[in-house]
Amino acid sequence: MRFERKGESPFHPGQPVPVDLFVGRRNEIDRINRAAKQVAYGKPQAVYIMGEYGIGKTSLARLIRVMAEADTGLCGFHVMLGEKNSLDGLAMTTVEAILQSDAVRQSTSSKIRDFVSMYIGERTLFGMTLRLDKLKKDAPSIQQGFLPFLRSIYQTLSPRSKGLILILDEINGIAGQPEFALFLKRLVDENAVSGAPVPLLLIVCGTQEKYGEIVKHHRPVERIFEIALIEAMTQEERSTFFDKAFQKVNMQVDQEAMNILCDFSGGLPRLMHLLGDAAFWIAEQSVIDKETAISAVAASAEEVGRKFVDQQVYKALRSKDYKNILKKLGRFDFDLEFKKSAIEKQLNEEEKKKFNTFLQRMKKLNVLVPGKERGEYKFRNRLTRWYFYLNSVDD
Hints:
Layout: H1 26-40, E1 45-50, H2 57-71, E2 74-80, H3 87-99, H4 102-105, H5 110-119, E3 120-124, E4 127-130, H6 132-144, H7 146-157, E5 163-169, H8 172-175, H9 178-193, E6 200-206, H10 208-217, E7 226-229, H11 235-247, E8 252-253, H12 255-265, H13 269-282, E9 287-288, H14 290-308, H15 311-317, H16 320-331, E10 337-339, H17 340-344, H18 349-364, E11 368-370, E12 376-379, H19 382-390
Parallel strand pairs: 1-6, 1-7, 2-5, 5-6, 8-9
Antiparallel strand pairs: 3-4, 10-12, 11-12
Helix pairs in contact: 1-2, 3-6, 11-12, 12-13, 12-14, 13-14, 14-19, 16-18, 16-19
């Protein structure tokens, strides 16, 4: 009998994980929560949440903000910088995030209303429009006086708020700019030596590579951040996540299917949501079985390719010349680094002739970089590595 579902999928591919579906990261949560409590006592803190793409940095930062607002009385602002590559862009985006936050929109303070009125245009049935021209004009003065700006926000929100959480996320565009490193150091140091420091928890989310770029531009940045390293979820955490999500819609996962979902997700929350969502829509029964899981992996491979793999890379990997190489490299057992000689043993003569060209093309497209040893290569991005792996399932 066909299983009829009603309602929405419990998975959220491409979005931060809802708080009620968050699994694992206990040590990192405890560490950042300790920092939040210090801020509530008046002691500023700075944390860099470090992890690969798709590992769940944004979801963790969001969870910390929600918990800290509820438990310690802090007020949080999550700033998604996206393609912003200047301090003026950072200033504009920060003000936008603050204006659109619940804390500001729900405040009855006259000071907050005066601040908001400067940047609010026409109010409509569906909310409000921002005066981006005014924001852009004021951005230089805001970024130059960023600490006084944050102090004014804190003072207008107190005594209801014991401090601020400022999350700077999606820093790819700005991390390579030398002024960003100086901005971070100046913000933390100026606050520390001021007569009355703003109780601020500064959280920056990024990869290890982006952290290296920031430090390269200004090495003293190293001493201001506590590092919260986010790694792939354990097998037990993956299983708990899938069980928890499917139980929300009265579905179960048999053991063979669970092994496939856990294995092919690689412990990356972004892939776990993609796989789970695909399995949810493919399933024709209330139990996710092996066949459904395999179909979900195949479907997710294309989704990962379209959404998270550079389109030049995606196009190159789909060529007939590289199809079999992609599959054989994908199923080979390694993490991010592999030896050319080990892969060549799995290839036939025709594939071997194309393999060197394939490697050079992947290097040119910035998919692979040379490893530590001669003849060794390393994937720069775990999502691309996992795209290879997902594509190996359908033989």
